């Protein structure tokens, strides 16, 4: 038996070279883009750094002290009552308000008859 194997090796084709000017132009544009990006990054970084320095250089301001309001009013001088205050209807109104205020202050809010019922359910917990 005769082995007649014809194995052909692949042929290498030469790579077409790009014109030299095209390669230079591509590298020039990519270098130009890198240069612009680097300038933008440096500019933004310097702006941030100067902003932080300005903020940190400010002197802390003294806190502003405000007066606290008193829980009770200041005393007022005695004034003469108006003509309305001496009329009978107004005097009756003042006495009604005083009696209502007294009854409200004496009212007991807690009512023992309103307590909730005691629930004893057989839940089986021990």
Verbal overview:
- With 126 residues, the protein is mainly alpha-helical.
- The protein has a domain at 19-58.
- The protein has 2 helices and no strands.
- The model has no long low-confidence stretch (mean pLDDT 79).
Structural class: mainly alpha
Number of strands: 0
* Fraction in helix: 40-55%
User: Taking all residues together, what is the mean pLDDT?
Assistant: 79
Tell me what portion of residues adopts beta-strand conformation.
under 5%
What's the number of helices? 2
Main sheet attributes: strand count, strand direction, barrel closure: none
Q: Low-confidence spans: pLDDT under 50, at least 5 residues?
A: none
Intertermini distance: 96 Å
Radius of gyration: 48 Å
Shape, please?
elongated
Order of helices and strands: HH
Per-chain topology:
Blueprint: H1 20-57, H2 88-105
Which features does this protein show?
single chain, about 130 residues, mainly alpha, 2 helices, about 45% helix, about 0% strand
Task: Give the structure's gist in a few sentences.
With 126 residues, the chain is an all-alpha fold. The protein contains two helices and no strands.
